[in-house]
């Protein structure tokens, strides 16, 4: 009974975190008035994440382990520079995408990261996919394509986006974000196989590089404007809410995800698409037609199908035991990998 309650609580947290971040970013980026610098928001989220993880490690009285993992084992820390760079790019691209795309359209299109992650897993980790998973990837691609066709037709009929929004720019941003998400997740899993470092330690290592790279990107893109107006220009309570959601939401998911199996995570992602669409109708005046419903339905079904466990092939008992232990090890690696994804937006 307690385990069932934990699953339902996990489901609720995953859905709320998934949907709320996208909707809140879309809301603050479409409000009239001064706009905050998204590059500064990415840096602030990384700083808060690092400080939170440091406090947790200090509370656990493992400060010496922190020094040892980051400084003494510096080669292990340097391995995280590449995924940190990709995640920083991805977090910035998500702001660009959500600023230029309807929240529901972004939520559906962003599921392409499942496709890119699967393809990179096959190419880089030599993982095998079941027939159902390959079918689900085809359905996923078809669903996203239908949604894009629907949006393109809507763009031709009437001006849906505001004058400061560019649908093509948002679409390119979300596609590049999906590619970077897939590659970073698989690369992260590959270099950290068998690592014994804790979730909090890995987030500190990632956050250090993420903060430095984020500051570099902020200086390159908005340096002059920030020097003139200030780092916190345009920050409102709602903007702070978005930043806290991005920083702490991902850490919360990292803790909760251990209680959620793949089916539950797939269901949470699917349900968050529905929540985002329904809220977008009332909050942003988003129009849902038959073509969007068909495309989103295919994506939701594909996400759920992909999360289904593979059918176990009959084998001798010893082979079964070996396969089970290997599967558990892989699962642990996957869930740990997911703990460091920017989570910002969606659970795998």
Automatic annotation (TrEMBL):
<feature type="transmembrane region" description="Helical">
    <location>
        <begin position="264"/>
        <end position="284"/>
    </location>
</feature>
<feature type="transmembrane region" description="Helical">
    <location>
        <begin position="40"/>
        <end position="59"/>
    </location>
</feature>
<dbReference type="InterPro" id="IPR037185">
    <property type="entry name" value="EmrE-like"/>
</dbReference>
<keyword id="KW-0762">Sugar transport</keyword>
<feature type="transmembrane region" description="Helical">
    <location>
        <begin position="290"/>
        <end position="308"/>
    </location>
</feature>
<dbReference type="Pfam" id="PF04142">
    <property type="entry name" value="Nuc_sug_transp"/>
</dbReference>
<feature type="transmembrane region" description="Helical">
    <location>
        <begin position="169"/>
        <end position="188"/>
    </location>
</feature>
<dbReference type="InterPro" id="IPR007271">
    <property type="entry name" value="Nuc_sug_transpt"/>
</dbReference>
<feature type="transmembrane region" description="Helical">
    <location>
        <begin position="200"/>
        <end position="220"/>
    </location>
</feature>
<dbReference type="GO" id="GO:0015165">
    <property type="term" value="F:pyrimidine nucleotide-sugar transmembrane transporter activity"/>
</dbReference>
<comment type="similarity">
    <text>Belongs to the nucleotide-sugar transporter family. SLC35A subfamily.</text>
</comment>
<dbReference type="GO" id="GO:0000139">
    <property type="term" value="C:Golgi membrane"/>
</dbReference>
<feature type="transmembrane region" description="Helical">
    <location>
        <begin position="104"/>
        <end position="125"/>
    </location>
</feature>
<keyword id="KW-1133">Transmembrane helix</keyword>
<feature type="transmembrane region" description="Helical">
    <location>
        <begin position="80"/>
        <end position="98"/>
    </location>
</feature>
<keyword id="KW-0472">Membrane</keyword>
<feature type="transmembrane region" description="Helical">
    <location>
        <begin position="232"/>
        <end position="257"/>
    </location>
</feature>
<keyword id="KW-0333">Golgi apparatus</keyword>
<protein>
    <submittedName>
        <fullName>Solute carrier family 35 member 2</fullName>
    </submittedName>
</protein>
<keyword id="KW-0813">Transport</keyword>
<feature type="transmembrane region" description="Helical">
    <location>
        <begin position="132"/>
        <end position="149"/>
    </location>
</feature>
<keyword id="KW-0812">Transmembrane</keyword>
């Amino acid at each position: 009974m307690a385990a069932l309650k934990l699953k339902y609580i996990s489901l609720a947290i995953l859905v709320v975190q998934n949907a709320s971040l996208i909707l809140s970013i879309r809301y603050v980026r479409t409000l009239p008035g001064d706009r905050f610098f998204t590059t500064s928001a990415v840096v602030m989220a990384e700083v808060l994440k690092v400080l939170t993880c440091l406090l947790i490690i200090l509370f656990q009285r493992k400060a010496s382990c922190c020094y040892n993992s980051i400084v003494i084992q510096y080669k292990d820390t340097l391995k995280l520079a590449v995924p940190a760079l990709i995640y920083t790019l991805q977090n910035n691209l998500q702001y660009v995408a959500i600023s230029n795309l309807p929240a529901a359209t972004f939520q559906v299109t962003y599921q392409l990261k499942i496709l890119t992650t699967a393809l990179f897993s096959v190419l880089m980790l030599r993982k095998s996919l079941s027939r159902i998973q390959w079918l689900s990837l085809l359905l996923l691609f078809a669903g996203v394509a239908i949604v894009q066709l629907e949006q393109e037709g809507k763009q031709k009929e009437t001006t849906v986006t505001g004058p400061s929004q560019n649908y093509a720019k948002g679409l390119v941003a979300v596609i590049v974000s999906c590619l970077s998400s897939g590659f970073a997740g698989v690369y992260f899993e590959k270099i950290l196989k068998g690592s014994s470092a804790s979730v909090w330690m890995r987030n500190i290592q990632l956050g250090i590089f993420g903060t430095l790279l984020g500051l570099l990107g902020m200086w390159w893109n908005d340096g002059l404007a920030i020097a003139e107006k200030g780092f916190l220009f345009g920050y409102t309570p709602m903007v702070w809410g978005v930043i806290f959601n991005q920083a702490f939401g991902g850490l919360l998911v990292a803790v909760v995800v251990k209680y959620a199996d793949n089916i539950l995570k797939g269901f949470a992602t699917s349900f968050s698409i529905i929540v985002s669409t329904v809220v977008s109708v009332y909050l942003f005046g988003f129009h849902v037609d038959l073509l969007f419903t068909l495309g989103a339905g295919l994506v939701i079904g594909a996400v759920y199908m992909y999360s289904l466990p593979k059918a176990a092939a009959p084998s001798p008992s010893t082979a079964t035991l070996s396969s089970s232990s290997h599967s558990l090890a892989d699962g642990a690696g996957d869930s740990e990998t997911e703990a460091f994804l920017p989570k910002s937006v969606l659970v795998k």
